Amino acid sequence: MNIERLKKQIIESEGLRYRAYQDHLGNWTIGVGHLLKLPDEQYLLRGSLKEYEVMHIFTTDLNQAIDDARKFIDENSINERAFEIIVDMAFNLGLTRLSKFKKLKQALINNDYVKASEEMLDSLWAKQLPNRSKRLAEQMRDV
After folding, report:
1. Number of domains composing the chain
2. Bond before 39 cis per omega within 30 degrees
3. Structural domain boundaries enclosing 118
4. Which of 24, 77, 109, 128 has the fewest CB atoms within 10 Å, i.e. is most exposed?
């Protein structure tokens, strides 16, 4: 796994903000797509974060997404780029929602990346995030 490429990809997908904002679903978010929950609401009142604070939160969230992706599929059983795409999805969805992609998982187990890309697009996630899902599905198809 190429961590620097993965970080760049997720920042491209999520954006980078130093102040709290509402995402496309109306959830308060900060940094690189970090969903604010108790006791994180302090960030709503605080104003701008420093770059090192955003990167610390991002690193913690990224490590969780990598762990979640590894629970979803064996990292060593699929192409490196395909695994990075799954980490991006895990970053956005979390393990609970990612686990519902059963046909995607089976396509990955079969190393059928074209089918995997189709399964990514056949989802509520793709409807909610059309640009991100299309870009990631195209990357998956090209693996």
Report:
1. 1
2. yes
3. 3-141
4. 24
Q: Name the amino acid, one letter, at 36.
A: L
Whether the Cβ atoms of residue 99 and residue 108 lie closer than 8 Å to each other = no
For 27, the token pair is 């959830």
For 8-38, the pLDDT digits (tens) are 999 998 999 998 888 878 888 889 999 887 6
Residue 16: which region, alpha, beta or left (left: phi > 0; alpha: psi -120 to 50)?
beta
Task: Name the token pair of 22.
Answer: 């509402």
- Tokens read off for 30: 């900060």
**CATH number for position 130:** 1.10.530.40
Nearest to 65 by CA among 6, 108, 121, 107: 6
Summarised one tens digit per residue, pLDDT across range 78-130 is 999 999 999 999 999 999 999 999 999 999 999 999 999 999 999 999 999 99
Tokens 């762990």 -> residue? 67
